[in-house]
Specification:
Distance between the termini: 27 Å
Strand content: 5-15%
Bound molecules: glutamine
Structural class: alpha/beta
Oligomer: single chain
Radius of gyration: 21 Å
CATH topology: Amidase signature (AS) enzymes
Number of domains: 1
């Protein structure tokens, strides 16, 4: 059996455990596929030089009778998640030559479990964007239509999975960066509860929003990958303790739909697919009802204050002195200016400026302070909704994949892409995007995503409901 015919981690696991395929054959299949397709798609910034060695090691462990969910499973990792001894550039000129000095907790867990790490995937620079076009190393293309974006910022990870160039991948989600590219590429994407996957070794964008999560072919795979990387970590002060009670499976579910919010600017045919998804849930015995979430329409504006504020603080460390790109200026101050000017792309600079502005004295109360109040209101509003429903459903994006270049000169239209995804990050709750249906653009069938949000630590609810949509259960 050829490695790249395998369609899920679950299937690969069974084949590896019964010896029907070796980790080496599986890995070779993916390397071949990458060679064949990635010249066009550009999902990877680097394919590692030791993939076959990792696979051979996995085969040895398998031969010795070792079992493990990820032993021999080929995965891709977003380029802002550190792997010791490997370049980690966050798709920025600033870190083009930076080598990670330690493993992120997520990568360490995967390495330990014997996963085969194929390479690091392309992304929007420092995870800022919704299209993977802000990468300093060129855009990634959507495998469903190479004239279109894969979404972002984890566009490389999504395209690698959708293009059959990795069995699954890790991404990061600050305002939608796992779910949005998952939706536009037709794969499953989970943004876990804030703090449930350690941020140790994830390059910080918005520290109160960031989380690592899986992009996979099936919901069951997202569940498996999430289990492999989650857990308390003393290296992350905001990490959720392992003894916190999680929401468990129920016999009957109620899903709420914030209809009034959806009527704002969603493509008609995409909304129809979403309605079909709701019908599928109903057919599976789920009760679907309308809910009011009056503050959620302020989530996007709130996010675009909080996130840049945190970005401006987090990216201050790239000063061209301690690490990262250095450009000589006339004096020390000029060194900073020159280094940061040359190292950061336009979008990153825009956000640093915006963040510095909203945090500056005199404007702090008007912008950052207000945004923090809005964050509280949205959180309370959503918590109230969860008193009567188990999950909230929304499309993942207002439209399918757009054309490369279509939105690059209009940042606001790019930000609007995030309208349905940012609230989960603002509140810290988990959200899942599953591919559900397609819409046609320029005679191409483009996938769209159905998004479910659950209360904190409610991932199980998302998996159970998600599987009903993907016909996995
Ligand atoms: N598209 C959003 C932004 O540009 C989300 C990014 C992310 O989740 N990393 O901020």
């Amino acid at each position: 059996m050829a490695g790249s015919d395998v369609t899920s981690i679950q299937e690969a696991r069974a084949l590896l455990d019964t010896g029907k395929i070796s980790a080496t054959e599986l890995a070779q299949g993916y390397l071949d596929r990458i060679k064949e397709k990635d010249g066009t798609i550009h999902a990877y910034l680097e394919v590692f030089d030791d993939v076959m060695k990792q696979a051979k090691d996995a085969d040895k462990r398998l031969a010795s009778g070792e079992k493990g969910a990820f032993l021999g499973i080929p995965l891709a990792i977003k380029d802002n998640i550190l792997i010791q001894g490997r370049t980690a550039s966050a798709a920025s000129r600033m870190l083009e030559n930076y080598t990670a000095t330690y493993d992120s907790t997520a990568a360490a867990k995967l390495k330990e479990s014997g996963a085969v790490l194929l390479g690091r995937t392309n992304m929007d620079e420092f995870a800022m964007g919704s299209s993977t076009e802000t990468s300093a190393f060129g855009a990634t293309k959507n495998p469903h239509d190479t004239e279109r974006v894969p979404g972002g910022s984890s566009g490389g990870s999504a395209a690698a999975v959708a293009g059959d160039m990795a069995l699954a991948a890790l991404g990061s989600d600050t305002g939608g960066s796992i779910r949005q590219p998952a939706a536009l590429c037709g794969v499953v994407g989970l943004k876990p509860t804030y703090g449930s996957v350690s941020r140790h070794g994830l390059m910080a964008m918005g520290s109160s929003l960031d989380v690592i999560g899986p992009l996979t072919r099936t919901v069951a795979d997202a569940e498996t990958l999430f289990s492999a990387v989650r857990g308390h970590d003393r290296m992350d002060a905001t990490s959720v303790p392992d003894d916190r009670e999680r929401i468990t499976r129920k016999a009957k579910y109620t899903v709420g739909v914030p209809r009034a919010f959806l009527e704002k600017g969603v493509d008609k045919d995409l909304l129809e697919e979403f309605e079909r998804g709701l019908d599928t849930l109903t057919a599976h015995g789920v009760h679907v009802q309308d809910i009011k979430l009056s503050t959620i329409e302020h989530a996007l504006a709130t996010y675009y204050i909080i996130m840049p504020a945190e970005v401006s603080a987090n990216l201050a460390r790239f000063d061209g002195v301690r690490y990262g790109l250095h450009v000589d200026g006339r004096d020390r101050k000029d060194d900073y200016r020159e280094s940061r000017g040359a190292g950061f792309g336009r979008e990153v600079r825009r956000r640093i400026l915006l963040g510095t502005y909203v945090l500056s004295s005199g404007y702090y109360d008007a912008y950052y302070g207000k945004a923090m109040q809005a964050r509280d209101r949205i959180r309370r509003d959503v918590r109230t909704a969860f008193e009567s429903v188990d999950a909230i459903a929304m499309p993942t994006t207002p439209a399918p994949a757009f054309k490369i270049g279509e939105k690059t000169s209009d940042p606001l239209s790019m930000y609007l892409e995030d309208i349905f995804t940012v609230s989960a990050n603002i509140i810290g709750i988990p959200a899942l995007s599953v591919p559900y249906g397609t819409v046609t653009r320029d005679s191409k069938e483009l996938p769209v995503g159905f998004q479910l949000l659950a209360p904190e630590l409610g991932e199980e609810t998302l998996f159970t409901l998600g599987k009903k949509l993907t016909a996995e259960g």
